Amino acid sequence: MARSADSAPTDGAMRSIHRMLNPASIAVVGATPRLQYGGRFLKAALRSPDGVRVYPVNPRYDEVMGVRCYPRLADLPESPDLVGIVVPYDRVMDVLDECAKCGAGSAIVISAGFAERGIDERGDLQKRMGEFALTSGVRVCGPNCLGVANLRTGIWATASSLAADGKSGPIGLVSQSGASAFGPFLARALEKGVGYSYIVSTGNEADLGSADFIRYLVDDPHTKVIACFIEGFKDGARLMEAARAARQRGKPIVMIKVGRSELGSRAAGSHTAALSGEDTVHDAAFRQLGIIRVDDYDDLIEVSQLMAYSTAPMAPGVSVVSHSGGISSLTADNCGQVGLSLPPLSDETVQGLNEVLKGFGWAANPADVTGHANSDNFPRILDLMSSDPEMGTVVVASAGSDNQAQQIVDLRDRMNKPIAFLWTGSQSATDGLDLLKSSNIPVFYQPGTAARGVKALIDYHRRRDIHVAAGPPSSGEPSAEQRQEAERLSSLGKHTLSEHETKDLLALWGVPVTREKRADTLEEACAAAAEVGYPVALKVESPDILHKTDAGLVALGLGGVADLRQAYDTLLADARTQHPGSRVSGVLVQEMVSGGTEVIVGVSRDPHFGPVLLLGMGGVLVELYRDVALRVCPITREDAREMIAEVRGARVLEGYRGIPTGDVEALTDALMNVSTMAVHLRDSIRELDVNPLTVLPAGRGVKALDALAVLGP
What's 167's DSSP letter? Predict the structure, then answer.
C-alpha cells in the first residue's frame, strides 16, 4: 500500500484521509467574521498556499474575511475535498447529509456536544454520525476535535487559536486531544526545533480513529516517526494492524497513553483476570507491537526526534563524553538505570584520549574531557569515543558555542552511528543550541530522558529485526473437532467448566495434561486410583468452587487405598460444610507429578485487544508477587520466548542451585497452543487459568496440573 508523494491511496478510509490532509479545496460550514471556532477555522484555512480554494458557507453572510460566502454546500462551484463543520451539535447530521449530496471528500466536525457529555441521546447521535460516514463514504474526523494541519504544504484546517507556522519535519502527530496537539505539542516542538509532517486531532472518533490516521502515516513518504497522544482506544485490532505495518516499514511509533493508574478494581473469578489490569495489557501490547511508550510532552517530542534522525545502532554499547565529571557520571548513572551498556574503552582508545587530555579529565567511558570539549581537540576526542566497534551510539553531554555544535554536526555527517546531545546549558541559549536544532541533531535536556531515548532506539531496532524476520503471528484454522467444540461452548453462554472439562479442552489444543479419572463414588475413586497408579492426588470436582487449593479441597500424595478412603470422606464433608449449595460432581483422581517448576498460564479478555495471554510463576502467591508477562493473542514463537525471559522467577528454568534445567521449548509450545486456543475460542472463553502448569526437566515436557475456564460473552 506504499505510495509516492503525490499519489492517493485506494482504500476508502485512507483516500478520505488523503483528501483531508492534502485538500485542494476547503469549505467551512459555520464560517463567521467573529474569531470563535468558525472564524478561527476560516482564518487558518485562508492562510493556505496559493492553489487551495477556500469557501466560507453561512447563509447569514455574503462575504466573510474578504471572501465570498455561500448559503449552502450545494451552491459551491465544486465538490470540496474537505468540509470543516462548525455548527451546533443538532445541525451536524444535516450538514453531513449535504456533504454526501455535494460529493465532498471528507469532513472535520469541530462541533462538540456529543458522547463526551455523558448523555445517552448525544451518544446515540454520535453513533449515527459514524454509521452515516461509513454508508455515505464521507469519512469524518471528530466530533469535538480541533482539526488537522499539513505542515509540509502549509495547510491549517483547524479551529485552534494557537495555529501557527510550525516547522515542517518528519514526525507525524496524532492526538485525540486537540488542545494538546495545537497547544504544548506544537509550542514545545517549535521551541525545540522539532518539525511535524502533519498534526491530527481526532476528538471523539465517531468514525475515523487514531489507528486509521496512524495507518495512513505508515505509508506517507514524508513521515519517518509517528508520535501519538492517546486517551482511549476505539479499535485495538486496528491499532495492532497499523502498528505491525509501521514496524514492517521501519517507522517507529512513540506514544503517550493516558491511564497508567487504575482508579478502580474489578471482581474476577481467575488469577489471570485479577492480574491483567487494563494498563498492564497496554504496556504488554505496546512491547509486542514495537510501540515506544513515554510519559510526558518532552519525552514524546525528544524521543521522536531521536528516532527520526538516527540510523539503527550497529552495536548495543553507548559511549558518553562530557566536559564535566559530575555530568558524565550522572548521565552514565541514568543510562545504567534503564539497562544500557557502557563498555570499557579499548587500550588504544584510552591511550589516544590521554595523549589529548595530557593529564586532565578522565579517559574512560563515561569520559570527562574538561575544557577540551570547547576546543579544537574535541573532534579528535569524538572520533576516539565513537570509533570503537562496541560503541553503537554516542551521547555528548555539554553546552558550548557554535564551534562545538558544528563539531557535533561534522561528527554526525562522517559517522554512521546515532548521536544524542544532552544540552546542559540554558534552554533559552542561542549560541550552539540553535545550530544543533537547525541541523537536526537530536537534543535532550534531562539525563533521564536522554537515557530512555537511547534505550528505546536500541531496543526498537533490535526487536524489530527479530520480529520482522519471524513474520506476523498466525493461529491457523481450527480442526473440524476444534470447530465443533467451539460451537458447543458458544451455545453454553455464561458457564464455568470444571477442572476435568477444562483439561479436556486444553488437550484438544495440544496442551499436555495429567492422567486422571473422574469418580462419583468411593468405589469408582479406588478403581480410578488403581488405573492411574499410586501415589495420586484427590480433588473435589465442582464448577462452583473455583480455587480448590485455597479452599482446602485437595489431598496430595495419597499412597494407598486407606489414604484414599480417608481423604475422600474428609474432602466431600468439607465441601458440603464450607460451600453449601455448591454443585459437587464427585472427585478427580489424578497422577502425582514431581520434579518440575510450577508456572501459571492464563487467558483474559481485554475490551480493546481481545484475548490476552499471561505467563507467571505458579502457585498460590502469584497475585502477591505479580511476576508475570502478558501478550495479546495470537503470539509468535518469539513472543513466547520473550514472555519467558520477562518473568524474573522463570530464570530457575535455566538451572539454579540444583534445580534441573526446565523444558523451555515445551513451555514455548504450550504458550503457542494456549494462544491458538484463545483465538479460536475468542467468542467463548472469558477467563482461563492453568495453574499450575508444571515445567518438567529438559526433554520431559510440561503438564497442566490444574485448570479453570470461565465461559461467557
Answer: P
3-state secondary structure of 555: strand
Residue-level pLDDT at 659: 82
State the sign of the Cα–Cα–Cα–Cα dihedral 138, 130, 125, 262.
negative
More confident residue, 112 or 595: 112
Mean local confidence (pLDDT), 380-400: 96
Q: Are 141 and 148 in contact (CB under 8 A)?
A: yes
Torsion of Cα atoms, 709 then 635 then 11 then 213, to 10°: 90
The single residue listed with the C-alpha cell 560503541 is 391
pLDDT band at 269 (very low <50, low <70, confident <90, very high): very low
CB atoms within 10 A of CB 531: 12
Q: 3-class DSSP state for residue 468? A: helix
Q: How many CA atoms lie within 13 A of 60 on its CB side?
A: 6
Give the chain's domains with CATH numbers: 12-259+277-305 (3.40.50.720), 309-470 (3.40.50.261), 515-592 (3.30.1490.20), 597-711 (3.30.470.20)
Q: Does residue 263 have a pLDDT over 60?
A: no
Higher pLDDT, 9 or 586: 586
Backbone angles phi, psi at 612, to 5 degrees: -125, 130
The pLDDT assigned to 2 comes to 43
Cα–Cα nearest to 400, from 344, 470, 321, 329 = 321
Determine the Cα–Cα distance for residues 144 and 400; give it in Å rounded to an integer: 45
Going from the C-alpha of 2 to that of each of 8, 194, 242, 311, the distances in angstroms are: 10, 25, 13, 21
State the pLDDT at residue 262: 52
Cβ-in-10-Å burial (0-12, 13-18, 19+) of 218 comes to buried
Radius of gyration (Cα) for the chain, nearest Å?
Answer: 31
Cβ(307)–Cβ(253) under 8 Å?
Answer: no
Residue 603: the pLDDT is: 96
**What pTM was computed for the model?**
0.92
Kindly state the cell numbers that stand for 653.
528454568
Per-residue confidence at 335, pLDDT binned at 50, 70, 90? very high
| Cα distances (Å, whole numbers) of residue 457 to 152, 339, 420, 463 | 26, 13, 11, 10
pLDDT of residue 6: 52
Which residues make beta-bridge pairs with 227? 173, 254
Per-residue pLDDT band for 163 (boundaries 50, 70, 90) equals confident
Q: Please give the Cα distance from 94 to 488 (Å, whole number).
A: 47
* Residues whose CB falls within 8 Å of the CB of residue 441, separated by 6 or more in sequence, listed in order: 309, 405, 408, 409, 412, 419, 421
Cα–Cα distance measured from residue 69 to residue 31, given in angstroms and rounded to the nearest whole number: 8
Residue 223 in grid coordinates:
513521515
Q: Is the pLDDT of residue 415 over 50?
A: yes
